[in-house]
Amino acid sequence: MMLFTSLKKQVILSLLSVSLTGMYAQNVITDATFSAIEGRHIGPARTSGRIVAIDASDKDPNLVYVGAAGGGLWKSKNQGTTFKPVFDDYTQSIGTICIDQQHPDTVWIGTGEPWTRNSVSIGTGIYKTTDGGEKFEFMGLAKSERISKIIVDPSNSNNVYAAVQGALWSDSEERGVYKTTDGGKTWSRLLYVNPSTGCASLAMDPNNPQVLYAAMWDHRRTAYDFRSGGPGSGLYKSTDGGANWTKLSAGLPEGTIGRIAVAVSKVAPYSVYALVESEKSALYKSVDNGANWLKMSDQNAMGERPFYFSNISPDPVEADRIYKPGFVLLVSNDGGKIFQGASTEGGAYHSDTHAFYVSPKDNRFMYLGTDGGVYVSRDKGNTWSHCENLPVAQFYHVSVDMQKPYNVYGGLQDNGSWKAPSSNPGGIQNADWETIGIGDGFNAFADKSDPDLVYWQYQGGRVYRSNTKTGENKFIKPFADATTEDLRYNWNTPVHFGKKSNWLYIGAQYLYRSKDKGDSWERISGDLTTDNPLRQQQEKSGGVSADNTTAENNTTIFTISESALDANVIWVGTDDGNVQVTTDGGKTWNLVSTQISGLPPLAFISGIESDNFDKAAAYVTVDAHRNGDMQPYVFYTNDYGKTWKSLVNETVNGYCHVIKQDIVNSNLLFLGTEFGLYVSLDKGVTWVQFKSNIPQVGVFDMAIHPRDHDLVLATHGRGIIIIDDITPIRNFKMEMLEADVTFLPTRPYYLSSGGIVQDFPGDDEFVGNNPNGSAVVAYFMKKRHMIGEMYIEIYDNKGNYIKKQPATTRKGLNIVRIQTMLPPPRVPSSPNPLFEAAFGPELEAGDYLIKLIKGKDTLSTKLTINNNPDVNHSAADRQLRRESLLKAYNLLEELAYVDYQAIEIRKQTLALADSVKNKGLRANSFKYADKMAAMHEKISATQPGEGGVAGQIRLREKIAEVYSAIGSYEGKPTDLQLAALSVYVDAVKAMQSELDILIKGDLANYNAGIVRAGLQPVKVSDKATFMQSK
Amino acid sequence: MKKLLSAAILMLFIAASPLKAQNLKDVLNEYFDVTGQKKILKVETLTTFGKINQGGLEIPFKQITARPANFRVEGTFQGLTFLQTFNGTEAWTVNPFSGSTEPQPIPADQLKSLKIQADMDGMLWDWKDKGYSAVLDSTEDVEGTKCFKVDVTIDSNDVYTFYIDTESYLLIKSHAKVFMSGQAVESDTYYSNYKDVEGMILPGQIENRYNGVTGELIVIDRYEVDTPYPQSDFNKPAVAETPVTPGDN
After folding, report:
1. Domain boundaries defined on chain A
2. Which of A316, A450, A724, A980 would staple A266 via disulfide (CB 3.0–4.6 Å)?
3. Taking 90 as the threshold, does the pLDDT of residue A129 lie above it?
C-alpha cells in the first residue's frame, strides 16, 4: 500500500507538468454531462397547485410538511413563511405524510395521490426520513401506486401502518392495510378484500393503538369512466393491531357503498366518525367504538365528490367541533349534525379542499391544502392567509411569444390560464403573473400578428379569443352543425397553431381549421377516432355518485401537428389509439397507427411532433397509463406512417406526454414523461435524463423559443421551468466526449441595462430567478480539471490583453460567465466606500478573443458583444457616451493620483516635523501637512459614514455620480452631465497644477533644506508608477 | 516521452484505486498521502494570496493560517480593507463597507467555522482526537466525477461532507451544514486547479455556492509557507486609520 500511494503522489505531481491524453475509458453522456445548464423555475406560486397532504408537529406546529399532487414534498419550519422542497429525487405525487410525533425528525411519506381525479399521477411506494427531510430512504411497497394514510404507533415507532389505496387504472394485489414492526424493513398485508378494493382511509384509537378502523374502497377509473363503489367497499375494525378485522355495519347504509373517510376524535376517542358515500351519502357517528352507528347529517355537502373530498376531521380540542373539507371547509359545532362554512368574515381561499391540519396545541391554528395551494388560519378557519411561495402549479401546455423578454402562456389544472414574462427586473414575482383565463386551463397562446389577442380554453374544448385591450372575450369553440354528430371534446382539447401556416386547429372527433382566428371554421376530416359508443358514456360516470365534468370524455382528438414544411401535411392522434395523417390538407386521411408494431391498444396518443426537417416524418408519444400500463412509448416514422420504429429504451422512465424536435438540430429530441425530462442527441437511439434542477415531475408540454433558444417546460406540478439557451447542447457532437476541451457556441450576447426595481415582498413570496444576463463562453471537457492552472484571458480584436478571470472546471459542459466589466477605477482614499464607482465600464460592443488556458494548453474562441438592438441610439451618441464615460473613469483615477500625492506629502511632512530641529523647516512641515489635508478634504469625504449615511459630498463623490449616471444609460449623456464633467476636469487639473507648483517650487526648496538637515526629502511616485501599483 | 509514458502507466494505478480504498481509513490515508499531509503537519504558517470574485467584483485578499489556531483574512477594495481575525478563542471583524472602521466582535456561534479555518491540519486529520465523528458514507457523483463521500460531524448538529475524487484522491467538493443563530446554514465548496506548494497539493481555485448559485469564486495566486507573524496580527485589530480626519487642517 505504501508503494502504491507513493506512486500515486508521483502521478499527481507529474500531472502538474504533463498533459495526458487518450488514456481514459470511453466517455458516455450521463445526466451530469449538461448539468452546467440548470432548470430555472419561474412559478407561478400565486396560484400554487393542488395540495394533497399536510402534517405538522403537534408539539411545534411551526414545523409543517406539505405534499403536492404533482409538485413533491415541501418543508417549512416557520408556519409556511418559507418552504423548501425536500423530495426532488423521487416521484412528485404525494399521497400522505406522517410525522412520527414522538420523533419529529422521522417522517413517513406515502406516494401516489389518493384524490383520484382523471389527471392524477402515480406513486412509487413508501419513504422515510430520519433527519428531518435531508435524506429519504425507500421503504418498500413499490407497486402500491397510491398510499392514502400512514399511522405510526405512538407507543412504538417501529410499528407503522400504511393504507394502500392501490392501483387506480387496473386490478392490483398490492392493496389494503399493511404493517411493519421493524421500522419499514418488512411489511405484512393485514387486510385485503379484492384486486379492485384498496384502503382509502385508516384511523387509530389515540388511547389504544391496537384499535384500528379501515375504510376499504372498491373503485376503478378508465379513460372513459369512473366507478366509485362496489362490493368490496366497507368499514372494518381491528382490536389487535390489525391481525384480525371485523366488518362494521350496524347503522351504516346498506346497498352499494363508495368511498368512506373514517376518523376518531382525539379528545373523545370513543367517538368515531365515518363519512360514507352511498345512495344518500351521509356522516355517521359511533359513540361506542364503532359497534353502532348513527346518521348525523346527510346535507348535500356530505356527498360532494367523494373521490376528491372524502375527508372528515374532528377538532383535537373541542369534542363536538367537526370539520369537513370539500368544495369549501365546513364545520359542525354540534358533533356533526349541522355543517356550515367555517369562514364568516373571510373565506377567500381556493375552493376544493383536500388536506387539513388543526393544531392540538392551539386549535385556532390550522393549515388547509386546496387546489390552489396552502392556507393558514389563526382563528379556527374564519380567515386565511395564502402561502404564495409554493410553485407547485400543474400546467397542461405552454407557449411563448416574441416579446422582449418573451412571455410564457399556459393553462393550469383548476387554476385557469396565465401569462408571465420570462424575466423581469428583480426576478419573476407573483405579481408578474397575469390571469388570462378561468376554469381548468390548458392551451393558451398569444396571437402572432396582433399582440392584443390571446387564446385560452377551459375544460371540454371551451376556447376563447380575448382582447386584452378591450376586455372582450369571444367564444370560438366550433359547434355541431347539420353535417355532424354532437361534438366530443376531450377534457384537454387540443388547440394548435400550424407550424407552417399559423392557421388555428381544434380537435373534437373531427378536425376543425380556422384561417381567421376562430371567426369561421372549416371541418377538414370525418370522425378520426374509433367512435366506439362504449367509450362515450361519460354521463353514466361516477359510480355511486354521478360525476361528469368532461373529465371522462373519450373517443376524441387529443393531439394535432401541422408540418413545419407543408401545411397540407397534418398529423392527428386520438385518445383511443388512432394516429391519422393527411397529406392534402384534410381531404383524405390515412389511419396509420395500425402500422405501429408494439403500440398498446386504445391508449392516448399523447403527443405528435411533425418532423421539422422532413415532412414525411413524425414522432409519436403514447400514454397507456389509463389502461394500467405505465411504460414509455415513443415511435418514429419517416414515410408518412407506413413504417415505424420504437425510440425508447430502458433509460426512459414514466409514461410519455410529449416529444419535441429541436428547430435547428434534427437529431436533438426532448421527451417529457411522467417522471421528468429526457434528451436524445442521436434522434432517439439513446436518451439521458436531464436532472439539473429538474425534479422527477411530469413534463406535459414544451416549447422551444426560436429567438432566445430556451426550452420551456410545462410541468404538471412544478410550474414553468425554463432551460436557458440550449445552443451548446444543440451543437454538441458525440466525438467531443473524447476531446480534452472543445468550445461550444452560445446564443448571441447583447448589452442590456437590466432595469431597476425597489420591492421588499417579504420572505413569504416566491420569486423566480432571471436568466443569466452575462456574456458566456461554453466548452466541453472530457474530464474534470483538477491539477494545474485553468483560467480565461480576454483580448480585444487587435490582440490587446484586457483581463484575466477564473474558468470553471467540471467534467462535461461548462458555462462560464465572462466578466465584461473593466476593472473599477482607482478612487481617492476615504473612510467610506464609493459604490457609484464600484464597477468599471462594460466592454463596448465588438469582437473579443477568449483564451482558455488549461495547464500548458491554450485554446481560443471568439466572443461577440452586441449592442442592444432594441434601443435606438446613434453611433455618434454611443461614441459620445463611451468617451464621456471613459473621461469620468480616467478623471477619477487622476483625482486618485492627486489625492495620493497630497496624502503622501502630508504623511511625510508630518513625519519630518517630528525629526527636524530647524524651526522654519518644522513650521513648513506643518504648513504643507495642513495644506495637503485641506486638499484631501476637498477631494474626498473624510467623515466616516457609520452605515454609509455621512452625507459628505466632495469632488470624488461628485465625479463618481456623473460616472455612474453616464454609465447607466447606453445613449447620449445629458448636457449637464457633460457640463459637470467639464467642470470637474478643470477642478482636477487645477488641483494637479497646484500640486505641481508646490512640488516644483516651495516643496523643492523645503526638500533642499531637509536634505541639508541630513534627512530624506519628501518624495512621491510619478503617475505611471502609481497606476502600475494598481 | 519517457516521462509521459511513465505517467501514463501510473495513471493505471489511479484508475484501479477505488478497488483498493473501500473503508474510511484507506480513503483518508490515500487522501493524506496525495495531498502531502506529512508536510502540512510541519508547516507553522500558511499565507494565501489571491482574488475573490464576487458579484462582478474582484477583491484581492490575503489569508493567514498560523499554528496553533490563528486565522486572519483581509481583503482590499477602493483602498478600504475588510479584516477578520481569530486568535483561537476570540474573533473580530472590521468592515468599512458597512460604514464602520472599528473592530466588531464576531458572535460566538460563528467562531466554530473560524476554528475550522484555523485548523492547519484540516478537519479530516485526527478527527477522533478533535472529538469529531467521521463515516465513509458512500460514493457519489459530483458533476460527473465519482467521489468518496465522507461525513464529518463536529458536534450534534454541524455536519461537513467531503467528496474525494476516487481517481486522484483530491478533494472536489465539501458541503457544510452549520447551525448559526439556531438556523441551519448550508453551502457547497468546490476545489480545483491544484498546485504543488513545497510538497503540499493545495487548491488554486475555490468556488462557494449557496443553493446551487455561485457566491464567490476564489483564485489563489500563490501560497507562502512559514512566514512569521506576530500574535498581535490575530488579536483584536486596531481601529483602521484614515489619512485625514475632519479638523486636521
Report:
1. 48-386, 749-755+769-866, 875-1028
2. A316
3. yes
